[in-house]
Design brief:
There is one protein chain. With 190 residues, the chain is of the alpha+beta class. It has a single domain (12-173), classed as Glutaredoxin (3-Layer(aba) Sandwich). The chain has 7 helices and 5 strands, in the order ββαβαααααββα. It has helices spanning 37-52, 73-84, 89-98, 105-115, 122-127, 132-144, 166-182; strands at 19-20, 26-32, 57-63, 152-155, 158-159. A hairpin with a 2-residue loop joins β4 and β5 (158-159). The protein is globular.
């Protein structure tokens, strides 16, 4: 009997996918989903934050699909992870938000091509829910961290209180930057 293990593929989880400076003092993590209007607006805020705080922040998007409200959010999340395996997570991420009202499986395949994903098994992987467990892991981690609605932002592990606006996020980033400067090691002189 042939083993399916030889077909097993190491999956890059969303917890390891960042944009921005890998050594940044501030890590922003968002739990969100692709059909939600507030998450789409927050994506624009994040782009501005990454631009304004270039080199000082890194950003990680985690999946928290609201499947009772948005039936296509789960497959969209899986599609972003499928794209991540080809190094195209952020391209797909932005396309999904731009096209959040049209996230059917066939459309997801078209967006993957537009994002530059060159995976002839992309559609099969979506149909077989190859990345479903990774999305589920994000969702469960969000529940453990107290996420109740999206978008939910964490700045260096602390839940952002209030609306996910540029003003609120930048205020938290500034506070986190000040905190990290205070913790900077003092040079010892001999």
């Amino acid at each position: 009997m042939a083993s399916k293990l030889k077909d097993a593929v190491e999956i890059i989880p969303s917890s390891e996918i960042f944009v921005g400076n890998p050594k940044a003092e501030v890590t922003i993590t968002e739990f969100g989903e692709y059909e939600n209007e507030d998450c789409a607006k927050a994506n624009d805020v994040v782009k501005k934050i990454l631009d304004e705080y270039d080199g000082k922040v890194r950003f990680n998007f985690r999946h928290f699909p609201q499947t009772k409200i948005h039936q296509r959010s789960m497959k969209a999340a899986e599609a972003s992870l499928a794209a991540a395996q080809s190094g195209k997570f952020w391209e797909m991420h932005n396309l999904l938000f731009e096209n959040r009202r049209n996230l059917g499986t066939t459309s997801l395949k078209l967006y993957s091509k537009e994002a530059g994903v060159n995976n002839k098994h992309f559609l099969d992987q979506l149909i077989e829910s190859v990345y479903g467990w990774e999305v589920r892991n994000d969702f469960e981690e969000g529940i453990e961290k107290g996420v109740k609605e999206v978008p939910a932002f964490f700045v260096n592990g602390e839940l952002l209180k209030g609306k996910a606006s540029y003003e609120n996020l930048s205020k938290e980033i500034e506070a986190a930057l000040k905190k990290s400067k205070k913790k900077a090691p003092v040079k010892q002189t001999a």
